[in-house]
Amino acid sequence: MPRLMPHMATSLTASGVLRRIGQVLGLALMLFLAMPGLAPAQTAPASRAVPATEQAAQVRVQHRKIALLRGSFMGVPPEERARKATQAIDELLAKGGPGEVTVTDAPQGKVLLIDGAFAFFLMPEDADHARGQTLETATSDAVRALTHAIGETREARDKGRLLRATLYSGLATLIFALVVGVALRIRRALAAHATNLLAKAAGTQAGALDILHPARLRLAANWLVGAATWLLVAVLAYEWLVYVLTRFAYTRSWGEQLGSFLFGVLERIGGSVLDALPDLMVAAVILLLARGVTALARPMFDRAEHGLSNLPWLDRDLAVPTRRIFNTAVWLFAIAMVYPYLPGAQSDAFKGISVLVGLMLTLGGSSLVGQGASGLILMYSRTLRVGEFVRINDQEGTVTELGTFTTKIRTGLGEEISMPNSLIMGVVTKNYSRTVRGPGYILDTVMTIGYDTPWRQVEAMMVEAARRTDGVLQSPPPQVFKTGLSDFYVEYRLVCQAIPSQPRPRAEVMQLLHSNLLDVFNEHGVQIMSPHYFGDPSHAKVVPRDQWWAVPADKPGEAQKS
């Protein structure tokens, strides 16, 4: 024990000398038993590695970690070693000595001494070899931590320092209370000022939108100012707590841990942001390019939407859906290019979320894809157009909106019906606006009259009824077609063109047309009936020649004379 002799040479009292001699002898006996080859044969190994069932234990003084013990010594587990080491350090510090920490070598490791007395020892098994720590580095860290703990212990016993720490803590508490009170008092004034700023910004950006109502602006301003105020209070409370805890030696370790935690979080966030800046810059450039492409194409779509484009494939009806498809394709491509540059894109969590989103789109988006494909087919095949009068399945009306997923029509009764595009693709659609000349849509109605009524008279009466109907165009003139010669009656079909600009719905125009048909037939004494016979009548059901041109029908020669 060459390094212990200088400590024995110091001038001591008789009792101190005897105590030192006893401590040295006890240490020598313990090390003697620990030396391989000198210990009895039946003694267990001096030291061993930490079994899987054992856990490392900390030696703590003043809530500070002095060392971490991982190995067992002569059957004593690390937890028991740490307990005895803490107890020994507390006893040595209670004596009030100078607190000098020294280290001496031993066959099994390093022995730490306080004022020459044994405190605890470290073995090679106590070093964290996984992190590259050696016994020497572990010993130096333990000496540094123990010296710091001894200094804090001496400080905790100093009444003058304790009084100064109390005064500083009280002053910090007073300042904290004053700042919090001032922040809460000026919160309302800040909220009013923020409301005015938001109102001015809303007036210059979006105009008088309902979402920017003064009540909503006031609520948003109060929420923003309140959130900022309470965030400031939370930060101040955190800093006050760290400051107060670090004033006292007994709680200084807690304050340092709190401070290091906050700074560690900020450091990690700042480091992550700095590391992600190059990738974020690349992502921003890609998004700016996508925005530039859409901005360059905007004038072309605007001209087509206003009917000023000369492109044959892009008319007014296809301008809006083509714009949407183009913008969607550009932004989807941009997002796909940006994805690898997003922070955490290669992490397992990000990949898991991506797989989950893809699975949800696959399972739940098949119908949406079908609806969207049907809508595109309807748009680009020009099966339907806005403003056309159509009949889809058993519903008829004017097309008001042709969307990607649904088509809306307004019936003659004023009802708006939304129909899925996939349904429209699967049924027969009648378009009454495609065969007309100029603006308008087709009106048609069917009547069945017996063979004993001259067909020329029937056609003339149906045309007369169409001419009397307000909202029916006279050019092109109404036409009557004989669409069927049944066993007992003739089927007549009246076809005419209506004016779409009229505010009257199609149902009202059909109502007027049917009313005029009834009036005209009654005026000329023609019964509207579809005869059905159970037996052949006794007289022939024919029209004599002198009745072929019954009123209101005109003979060809008389029509020329008039």
Summarize the structure.
The protein has helices at residues 5-8, 14-34, 78-94, 135-156, 159-185, 187-205, 214-247, 252-305, 316-338, 348-364, 366-380, 421-425, 455-468, 506-523, 556-561, and strands at 47-48, 57-61, 64-69, 72-73, 101-106, 109-114, 117-122, 389-392, 395-402, 406-410, 416-420, 429-431, 441-450, 479-485, 489-498.
Characterise the protein shown here.
The structure is a single chain. The protein is α+β, with helices and mostly antiparallel strands and 562 residues long. It folds into 4 domains: 2-156, no CATH class; 159-250, no CATH class; 375-431, Roll (SH3 type barrels); 441-561, Alpha-Beta Plaits (2-Layer Sandwich). The protein contains 15 helices and 15 strands. It has helices at 5-8, 14-34, 78-94, 135-156, 159-185, 187-205, 214-247, 252-305, 316-338, 348-364, 366-380, 421-425, 455-468, 506-523, 556-561; strands at residues 47-48, 57-61, 64-69, 72-73, 101-106, 109-114, 117-122, 389-392, 395-402, 406-410, 416-420, 429-431, 441-450, 479-485, 489-498. The strands form 5 sheets. Strands 11-10-9-8-12 form a 5-stranded antiparallel beta sheet. It has a 3-stranded antiparallel beta sheet with strand order 5-6-7, sandwiched between helices. A hairpin with a 2-residue loop joins strand 5 (101-106) and strand 6 (109-114). Helix 6 packs across helix 7 (214-247) and helix 7 packs antiparallel against helix 8. It is rod-shaped and about 150 Å long.
